[in-house]
Structures are given as structure tokens and as C-alpha cells.
Amino acid sequence: MKIYVVRHGQTKWNLEGRIQGKTDIELNEKGREQAKTIRDLIAKYDIDLIISSPLKRAKETAEIINSNLKCPIIFDKALEERGYGEFEGKVRKLIEDEVVNSQMLHNYNLNLDYKGIEPIKDLCNRVWGLLDSIKEKYKNKNILLISHGGVIRAINGYFEGVDEDGVIENPQLSNCEIKIYEIK
Q1: What is the pTM of this model?
Q2: 31: pLDDT strictly greater than 90
């Protein structure tokens, strides 16, 4: 069983460096082109099912990719982006906040509840619960997940674990980049 993970295509806010979180932003033209490019790459994989975040940017990416695959798509709120509270819509590089500009928000052991940002354990619980369900329900199937940067960090933590300092590493996927995990 393989889990293919794709981050949604580019949005206007990605281009501007804004934190999107749960704000429902759609793809821009470049994001649509990126989705078409990854669609052609993914066509060579044996995908049985797509599970996508229902947010517009992920949903549209999933639909473009599926125009070739023609497999079932499930939209699951467990794959929605992490909520970033009062920081949503702000330009990341202009934020002068010690916590936001550190690894503290991604530290599983600290599990900060800070200014409306979804605590990392809450994010992991919903994402890891979905992954446990996928492993049980779709044995021997190849699943494509379409999601967001924060969720992809949680997915990476599920497969790669939490580092000795408690930080869940981010695989740093660019828009419409793919990462593959194998479940044996």
C-alpha cells in the first residue's frame, strides 16, 4: 500500500507569502497549471482513491488530477489545513512574533495553544486518525491525499515520527509536489 501526498497548487496568497490556514482561497492560474503538470506525472501511478481536503485550493487540485485518473474522490475535513487563528491572511515574513517564527508551534511535546492557532496535537489527532482509518479500510490500495503544508507536516510525523526534541519535521513540499510513503 502506498500513500501519495500532494500539496495543492499555488494560490494568490501563496504568491504573496500570506498564511492561508482554513481561509478558503482558490487556485490561481499558475496553480491550475501546476495541477495539470502533476496530473500527468501521477497518471503513471496506480491510484485507487483520492482523498482531499474540501478547501477550494485542494479540491480544485484533486479534480484536475482526477480528470485523468477517473477514480473516486472523497473530501474529508480531516485534511483541511491547520487553523492559524489571528495570523491567517498576514504576510509571513512581516510577522514579528517569536512563537510563530520558531519551531515551538510544531513541537508535539509543547503542544502550544497560542492566539487561535490549532494546537499541534489536535492537528495530529485528526490527521493520524484518518491515516489509521485508511490503513484499515483500504488495505492493499494506493491512496492519493491532496492537502496543505501544515497537514503534510502531520502526515510526515505519522510516518517519520517526532524528533527527539518533540518537533514534527516539515518535508517542505512546494505547490503540487508529491511525497510517497509506503505501508507494509
Answers
A1: 0.96
A2: yes
